[in-house]
Specification:
The complex is a heterodimer of chains A (264) and B (56). With 264 residues, chain A is of the alpha/beta class. Chain A is 34% helix and 27% strand. In chain A, the strands form three sheets. An eight-stranded mixed β-sheet of chain A has the order 5-10-2-1-13-15-16-14, with helices on both faces. Chain B is mainly beta. Chain B is built from no helices and five strands. Classes of the chains: A alpha/beta (264), B mainly beta (56).
Chain lengths: 264, 56
């Protein structure tokens, strides 16, 4: 059993990814949708607002209207695009968001500390949170009956409100909950890079103990959260986390074969 | 210079002239983080605990 997360940034070849993925069995797919969200939200006159936490993590500010557009793009367009492609490739995929059947449940953050114009501030009203429970019963029911779950944020709060959660960390929580051996995170970059401008500078191997230092030294932008997700997955019992690129043919197979960053 | 009393230790805390609502400041005496909850009247409260998880 493994969990694979496919990102939502520009440049990802979803057709190539699905062709590759369709050869495998016994997995759960988690996906993102960030570039589509940005494009559609902007077209709808609601461009994304990003905030930076005091420790340097960047995230989207999610008010109710943003969350509704988020649902349209992630649980609608992106999720059904992947389900359709998988069905076309002969995989009996079923697309669900974390809301459905409370697959991804957690708590909404009451207040966030952010840096704005160089000043530390408290931000309230952000509909984001952290996953604390995964409905493995429902996922196993689907897997045991031959369905391939295709999952996406948002998650659901204990109060029954949709919350935006990070997709990489979602995938990590799912991998831990399902006792998956491996978590594969594919994106538009080929792994953790020593130099973010140089795609050839992939760091091939990272140990658990190096993760925190590498978050500070090498990781930029969303790569920080991928490393955080890797750390959470390993701490939860997942044997290895692989970070790989999904711009070309056979991205999953190549990553499994060692092209990318292996964290264990 | 604007000044308020630290709700934790009672010391006087100086605020920048251009302080904004929800800004976090640190009490120099006890080191606690304070949030500016109101500008008029000027009021501070203990800042909430760190919340460091983020969405997509």
């Amino acid at each position: 059993m493994f969990v694979v997360k496919i990102g939502g940034s520009k440049g990802i070849d979803y057709d190539a990814f699905v062709r590759d993925l369709a050869q495998y069995r016994d997995y759960v797919l988690v996906h993102g949708g960030s570039s589509q969200l940005e494009e559609i939200a902007t077209k709808l006159g609601k461009p994304p607002v990003f905030v930076t936490s005091v420790s340097g993590f960047t995230s989207r500010y999610t008010d109710r209207e943003t969350l509704e557009i988020f649902n349209m793009v992630y649980a609608g367009k992106m999720n059904k695009m992947l389900v359709e492609k998988l069905q076309h490739a002969g995989v009996n995929a079923i697309g669900l968001s974390g809301l459905d059947g409370r697959i991804l449940e957690g708590r909404q953050k009451e207040a966030l500390k952010i840096i704005e114009n160089g000043r530390k501030k408290i931000l309230r009203g952000d509909l984001s949170g952290i996953i604390e429970r995964v409905n493995t019963q429902l996922l196993k029911l689907l897997l045991d009956h031959g369905y391939t779950p295709v999952l996406t944020p948002p998650a659901i709060s204990y109060e029954g409100v949709a919350i935006n959660v990070d997709g990489d960390r979602c995938a990590a929580q799912i991998a831990v909950a399902l006792k998956a051996e491996r978590l594969v995170i594919l994106s538009n970059v080929p792994g953790l890079l020593r130099d973010p401008q140089d795609p050839q500078s992939v760091i091939e191997r990272v140990t658990r103990d190096q993760i925190e230092a590498f978050i500070e030294t090498y990781a930029r932008g969303s790569m920080k959260k991928k490393l955080l997700a890797a750390q959470e997955a390993l701490d939860g019992g997942v044997k290895e986390v692989l970070l790989g690129g999904a711009r070309g043919e056979a991205p999953l197979t190549k990553t499994l074969q060692g092209m990318g960053t292996r964290i264990c | 210079m604007k000044r308020v009393e630290c709700p934790e230790c009672g010391s006087e805390v100086e605020l920048p002239a251009d302080v904004v609502e929800n800004e976090i400041l640190t009490c120099d005496t006890c080191g606690i983080e304070l949030e500016v909850v109101s500008l008029n009247p000027l009021k501070v409260a203990l800042a909430p605990e760190e919340e460091e998880d983020w969405g997509e």
